[in-house]
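Dear support,

I submitted the protein below through the web form. The confirmation email said the job was done, but the results page showed an empty box. After a refresh the structure appeared. I'm attaching both so you can tell me whether what I see now is the final result or a partial one.
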Amino acid sequence: MCGIVGVISPNNCKVDITTLKLMSQQISHRGPDDSGYWVDETSRIGLAHRRLSVIDTTLAGHQPMESISNRYVIVFNGEIYNHSDIRQALELKNYNHNWNGHSDTETLLAGFEVFGIEETIKRAVGMFAFAVWDNNENTLVLGRDRIGEKPLYYGWQGDTFLFGSELKALKQHPAFKTEINRDAITLLLRHNYIPAPYSIYQGISKLEPGCLLSVSTTTKEPKVWPYWSSSDIAVSGVQAIFTGTPDDAVDELERLAKDAVGLQMMADVPLGAFLSGGIDSSAVVALMQAQSTRPVKTFTIGFHEEGYNEAEHAKAVAKHLGTDHTELYVTSEEAMSVIPDLPTLYSEPFSDSSQIPTFLVSKLAKQHVSVSLSGDAGDELFYGYSRYIQGHQMWSKLKLLPHPVRKFIAGTINHLPGTLLENMQQVLPKRTRRYTNRNDRS
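What the results page shows now:
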């Protein structure tokens, strides 16, 4: 995890390097290994970077980094898992370049020189947020990975354009206005978080996943466009249905999952994994251990309350796989002591209770490793939540109704109080009561 931040100053105003450094210091926890700054007074652009060294821990990976032609200057947060493949593609293009090191950031810059920014990002497989200044076009380009694993905030505050990995960095600039976005509060109450492109502050947006943004010193309105679409991927998947046997499907899934996990294990620093004992994290750790020559370091947080404790399951999985396992039991008081610090850990309101054990297990893992894999998003990818199954069962019946009837029912439900929907459950046949949380309309 690294951190990026930057500013485009108003006309006739130089970038204040002191302010830029202050903004960067606010996200020093994201990159404790190194820091760097770059300012072009003519273009009124300033970039800053906080580095957590994962690939190429030498000075060859220092940022902000300039391309070989000096056209591009980049600050990059994340990891490009297939950057070696991109280097090979550059060699096929007869790109003659003496590499300074083996960082994925240097690979990206070389790709920008040969393929252009958008084409390079389309080739890139990874998690990332970046900002690159094009000296030829006097244009700043921001980009975010396909699923939005890495955060990126941006926006005009008066005549100043600000961007960064966290809002606390932007707030250090004197142009920043702390006006609350009331529409974002509505979204928070509905979804338990604030989805992109909104943020808690007026005038500040989150770049949506799979998108690029360009802005210049002469254009006020940023241009945002997608370079990747999940709906396009879904359509192409439907058009090219897997034709193998169920056993073939299992083998292909294992191959893909093993390849994905293997790519994420490439690091020049100690690597570990969060292990809860559930299907998702256990599968990830199993795939890691199968590709590792030494026991994988795994970490678990345990609770003394039986209904919330997964540590025993994790210990059993760790023993079966032969990992180097570390667990830490915390009391309810220790868990609650984290709550006052949550506003400093998250840039905006976030209502997922898992943020507490996630912080605790991250704190534990940091004592031993620099990078940890987890099983997050397994339920989303493989329809693991019960609401997916319930939704499919309900849709199999509702789709038989004419569209106007379905539209009328949906409109009626949206206008009924949530408590009334919950009370109505008690008078429904018992076989339908398995559909819980009927007042959750999101």
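Response: this is the final, complete result; the empty box was a page-load delay. The first strand starts at residue 3 and ends at 8.
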